[in-house]
Automatic annotation (TrEMBL):
Pfam families per record: DDE_Tnp_IS240
Domain DDE intervals: 66-164
Protein name, entry field: DDE domain-containing protein
Organism: Candidatus Nitrosocosmicus oleophilus
The organism's place on the tree of life at top rank: Archaea
Amino acid sequence: MSTRNRTPSKYIFYGLYLYFSGLSLRRVSERLSCFIRRNHVSIWNWVQKYHPKKISSRKRNILEFIVDETIIKVGSEYIWLWITIEPKNKEILALTISKERNMLIAERFLSGVVKIHGKHPVSTDGGTWYPMACRFLKLKHHIHSPYEKSLIERTMQYIKDRTECFDDYFPCRKKNCNLKHVRNWLNLFVDYHNSELYSVK
C-alpha cells in the first residue's frame, strides 16, 4: 500500500499498529515523527485505504456462533453493528453494519456467516429477529448462557470503546452515505484484533 507522497509501508503499518493499540490519531502522528513527519489526517487516510485480508482466510474449528448487535454513532447518525464470534479463541468471524434492525438483515448477516464457515448452532440474546432468521436458514438456535453473554458483551464493549472516535473522524459528509469508510475501518480493526489473538498464543 502507498500514499501520494510514497510513505514507506513499514511506517504506515507501524502507524496503524499504534492506532489500533489505542493511541489517538494525533498521538500516532507524534510517535511517528521520530522517523517520518505525517499529520493526523494522513494517518486517518491510511486507515481508509488499507485493505486487510478477508476475515475468513484462516481455517477454524468452530463449535458455535455467538451473535449480537449494538448501536453505534457515526457523526450525527446512529447505525447498527452486527457481530459474530466463536467461543474457543474469541475470534471475530463476521461483522457488518446496517441502518435498520430486523429479521431480513439478521437473516442476510447469518447467511453470509454460514456461507463462509458452514452451519453451526447460533447463540443470541433472544431478539425476535434471530429465531425467525435461524428457522429460515435451518440453524439450531438458543439463548446466550451466562458465559456466552459475558464473551459477546466484552467484545462489544471493546469495539464500542474503539469506535468513540466515529463522532469526530467518521461523520458522513455525503447525502445518502453508504458508510463505506466505516466498513473500511471496521475491517481493519477486525484484522488487527484477530491477528493479535493469534500472536499471543
